[in-house]
Amino acid sequence: MAFELKQNLKLSQQLIMTPQLQQAIKLLILSRQELVDTINQEIEENPLLEEATADEPGPEEVRADVEDDVQSVEKEDSRLPERTAELTGEGDGREEFDWNNYLEDYGPVGVSYDRADGEAPTLDNVVTESPSLVEHLMWQMKLSPFTEEEVRVGSQIIGNLDNNGYLCATLSEIAQLEHVSEDYVEAVLKKVQEFDPNGVAARNLQECLLIQARMLAKGNPLLEVIIRDHLKDLELKNYVHIARKLKVPLREVEVAVLLISKMDPKPGAVYSEEKVQSIIPDVYVVKSGDDYKIILNDDGLPRLRISNFYREIMAGVGGRDRTEEENGKKYIRDKIQSATWLIKSIQQRHKTIYKVAESIVRHQKDFFDKGIDFLKPLVLRNIADDVEMHESTISRVVTNKYMHSHRGIFEMKYFFGSSIQRTSGENIASKSVKEEIRHLIAGEDPKKPYSDCEIVDLLKAKNIDIARRTVAKYREMIGILPSSKRKKYF
């Protein structure tokens, strides 16, 4: 078999992800806080980037000829003789790099939003630090007449509580860790269970309710009996069966159930360490006459510019070794290019968000005018065709982005949803159907709630044709119980 070498000419197309494109895609999918963190990290890593102060001149857009100027510098460098005269910063030997094109103030694209007109949400919700459940219980234990050994065992008990206030460890595990008997741990546990909040340090739901029953209604022994012996009937709201078993009037059972319904099954949740974070919208939708105006929110975003400090450094570069000079110029060029890419990518991100938000408002104008009942079915392709972008780009734009309007703050994904076919007229959005189910259940008779089949019939009367299982799925999605558990006897 003979082998031979041949040369073939082949023409093909290939998609190449340039560093600029990769950076633009990365910035596009970031949330507002992640964008701020990324900008701050770039400021730390790139010495040519700095944040402009508020009292400096207003933001200017990056010049379109930045890249051309950088290329011109490279061409001039290639035409230099092998040896050049010493650079003094004056006359013919001055630095070839044209710094005037780069030493400008830069800022994000978009209209600055003035909060004085009252359209933007006020920043009056300040999250303050609150004690955790463990800190609250330890504080109570230090004020109680506990011995040193009881404090040691009590600390072990408190340290093994979950976020809802339930004891996760067994008594034998705690006794083995602290080298005491299980009876001793049980005695300390009873003392801890007397702390606030009522029901804390219980081992299960039944014990949690029993602790609260002993403290809230000491004069009503029926409470403890129902919780201890008839918890399943209580869950199913089978009050008649409870009254028959206990041989008491139904009215007494109803009174006891009313007290039980006011108890907290998760007493420790109020001291949860999860912090509530305020949502900062990326876009404001402001009504202007019959139309809506889109305003980008650039509050809190660092205003970037390229530092003037390096102009002075390059002015004094003369007198150095040729290699050091070339390395310095290359380093400055690379950092300028990196800074320019970042600033342009941020500007492109703002422009893309603006175009997508404007298209969403245009498609969902009836929602902003009349409410959620008029929310239209919308998919990514509708917006992609409108703004002439790919669907994946639209998906990145609406991820972790929020829109503020007079109807509230919504994630931009909220405006997208599948359609439900009407028996007559235009299709309706699935979110509007969920809201219609919510309205129907809110107006039902609590003693005779609607079943899923009855909701299907009521929706058909409004030209909405969906199956019973779809009603059940939507009801579960919006957190509404079935009719058997919504029924109220008193």
Spell out the key features of this protein.
Arc Repressor Mutant, subunit A, extended, 490 residues, two-stranded antiparallel ribbon, alpha+beta, 47% helix, 6% strand
Write the layout of secondary structure elements.
Layout: H1 19-29, H2 32-45, E1 49-51, H3 66-78, H4 133-142, H5 148-159, H6 171-178, H7 182-192, H8 205-216, H9 221-229, H10 231-235, H11 239-246, H12 250-261, E2 283-288, E3 291-296, E4 304-306, H13 309-315, H14 322-363, H15 365-370, H16 380-387, H17 391-398, E5 402-405, E6 408-411, E7 419-420, E8 428-429, H18 430-442, H19 452-460, H20 468-477, H21 483-486
Helix pairs in contact: 1-14, 4-5, 5-7, 6-7, 8-9, 9-12, 11-12, 14-16, 16-17, 19-20
Helix content: 40-55%
Give the biggest sheet. 4 strands, mixed
Number of strands: 8
| Beta content | 5-15%
Q: Give the helices and strands as they follow along the chain.
A: HHEHHHHHHHHHHEEEHHHHHEEEEHHHH
The overall number of domains is 3
Low-confidence stretches: 57-118
Question: What separation lies between the terminal Cα atoms?
Answer: 96 Å
- Overall geometric form: extended
Total number of helical segments? 21
Going by helix content, strand content and strand pairing, the class is alpha+beta
Radius of gyration, taken over Cα atoms and rounded to an integer in Å: 34 Å
Strand order of the largest sheet: 3-2-5-6
Question: Mean pLDDT across all residues, rounded?
Answer: 80
